[in-house]
Amino acid sequence: MLLVAHRGASAVAPENTLSAFRAAIEAGADAIEFDVQASADGQLVVVHDSTLDRTTDGTGAVFETDGATIAGLDAGGWFSPGFAGERVPTLEEVLALDGVGFELELKGYGVAFLEAVLHAVRAAHALDRVEFTGWNLPLLARLKRLEPSARTGLFSSRQPEWMPDPVFEHHVVGTAATSGFDVAHVYAGDLTPSISQRLHGLGLEVHANDAASAEDVRRAMRSGADRLSANDVDLALQVMRPS
């Protein structure tokens, strides 16, 4: 099972920063997950939230802020004083990292945004290292039309408390069967061997999302997931690859 560092090694460094990504690579992660959206002037920046308030010393919506302003913000001081001065990376800076795969979550809108992301990925010769994900299914479907060789991942929501296991499995597998995507994402705490087996039968890779504990990692392993994402890279690796 491969390990994807969720927003980098975000348990030990500020999420979606080069420090978090480098820490994940050094720890032994196979891929890094990050979020991309467009600034007011079309710069592709790596920020999770739609606003800058939580993870920088700036404020306001990303899409209403120009790239130069975003580039000057402190994206690390909120996490700890030792990361003060960390900057918001651009997509190009992240794609320049060597020896790691990428899960690129699309947080922007429109064809111009999509084409700009594709251009950056192609320019970095990274298309074979990228999986494109996101909750915007029309955008991912358009991506597949623009670049049929692009690997796309389908997200599923958490299993609601009221939903019986067979109904949840029927929903996940049924949706994946008609998606035309390549990877099915299921939360690690919801994944079962039966779900994985049926998704594999459809020819999809199975990704266990957001493992938050050692038991989540073990559950993903027992269920036969191909990949797992976690904030705590060291914890996940201790379970996955004990020395």
Characteristics:
243 residues, globular, 19% strand, 9 helices, single chain, alpha/beta
Question: How would you portray this structure in words?
Answer:
By secondary structure, this protein is of the alpha/beta class. Helix content is 35%, strand content 19%. The chain is built from nine helices and nine strands. Strands 1-2-4-5-6-7-8-9 form an eight-stranded parallel beta barrel, surrounded by six helices. β8 (205-211), α8 and β9 form a beta-alpha-beta unit. The protein is globular and about 50 Å long. The relative contact order is 0.15.
Write the layout of secondary structure elements.
Elements: E1 2-6, H1 18-27, E2 31-38, E3 44-46, H2 67-71, H3 91-95, E4 101-106, H4 110-123, E5 130-133, H5 137-146, E6 151-155, H6 165-177, E7 183-187, H7 193-201, E8 205-211, H8 214-223, E9 227-230, H9 233-240
Parallel strand pairs: 1-2, 1-9, 2-4, 4-5, 5-6, 6-7, 7-8, 8-9
Antiparallel strand pairs: 2-3
Helix pairs in contact: 4-5, 6-7, 8-9
Radius of gyration, in angstroms, nearest whole number: 18 Å
SS strand fraction = 15-25%
Total number of beta strands? 9
Could you tell me how far the N terminus lies from the C terminus, measured between alpha carbons in angstroms? Answer: 16 Å
- H/E element string? EHEEHHEHEHEHEHEHEH
Please tally the helical runs, counting DSSP H or I stretches of 4 or more residues: 9
Low-confidence stretches: none
Anisotropy-based shape: globular
Alpha-beta classification: alpha/beta
**Helix coverage percent of residues?**
25-40%
Biggest β-sheet description: 8 strands, parallel, barrel
Mean pLDDT, to the nearest integer, reads: 97
Widest β-sheet, arrangement of strands? 1-2-4-5-6-7-8-9
